[in-house]
Amino acid sequence: MTQARLSEVFVEMADTLVDDFDVIDFLHSLTERCVELLGVTTAGLLLTDERDRLQVIAASTEQTRLLELFQLQTDQGPCLDCFRSGEPVSVGDLSAVEGWPRFTAAAAELSFTSVHALPMRLRSEVIGALNLFHTDPGPLDEERRRVGQALADVATIGLLQQRAIQHRDSVTEQLQTALNSRVLIEQAKGALSERLGVEVNQAFTMLRSQARSRNQRLSDFARAILEGSEQIQAEPDEAPN
Questions:
Q1: b/e for 187-223, b at 16 or more Cβ within 10 A?
Q2: Closest Cα partner for 58 from 110, 84, 22, 7?
Q3: Which CATH architecture has domain 3-164?
Q4: What is the pLDDT of residues 200-225, one digit of tens each?
Q5: What is the DSSP letter of 94?
């Protein structure tokens, strides 16, 4: 992680935070940048909905998304503890933890040995958690923790419309819109995966790439795919064997 690249990423994120920005695409990019800059294996992001219930909103891989869902279903895991306390939770060796038996077993199946959760918080308001998973054991050093928290803070400010939103109703409305969009995107990537015979991760990459090339919101393009008004054809190197 060089200082120049770090600066580029923060400029990129700041440029994205304009009026009516694409929340899903922005947060997915955030998970990708975390993997790149922090040297972790994968990253995921949980946000609250209008009823203050946590939902999976973005993940760098499909496996990570499913693990995040498993945390929510079993109501146990470091990411939930981070959200509830509003403080970072860092576990360098999951095999030594006894408090989340079902989560640690599921994480071990995916070869994750350490996890670090950072709160998405503005002052006293916590709206979610940024979660970093690694297949190597060990702590998150102070430099990477600071960078990770800074990325989480930028995302939080973006979701709160750059500190301009004063009322909780406005915040939850924006987050609920993002969650509704996520449902459309999940349905579209599943449909593409089945239709084109490709992996779900690959289907999402194709969906996102085509939405960008056509200058459409990811959720709008996903809806068009489901309705049949837009089509994606597999490229030769993407076609199933």
A1: ebbeebbeebebebbbbbebbbebbeeeebbbbebbb
A2: 22
A3: 2-Layer Sandwich (3.30)
A4: 999 999 998 999 888 888 989 999 99
A5: G
Type of residue found at 198: V
Does domain 179-227 sit in CATH 1.10.10.10? Answer: yes
Q: Residue 18 corresponds to which tokens in the numbers above?
A: 């304009």
Residues 191, 115: Cα–Cα separation, whole Å: 31
Each residue of 66-103: pLDDT tens digit? 999 999 999 999 999 999 999 999 999 999 998 899 99
Cβ distance 46 to 117 under 8 Å? no
- pTM (predicted TM-score): 0.71
At 170, list the tokens: 């406005």
Neighbours of 68 (CB within 10 A): 25
Please state, in angstroms and rounded to a whole number, the distance separating the CA atoms of residues 135 and 186.
Answer: 26
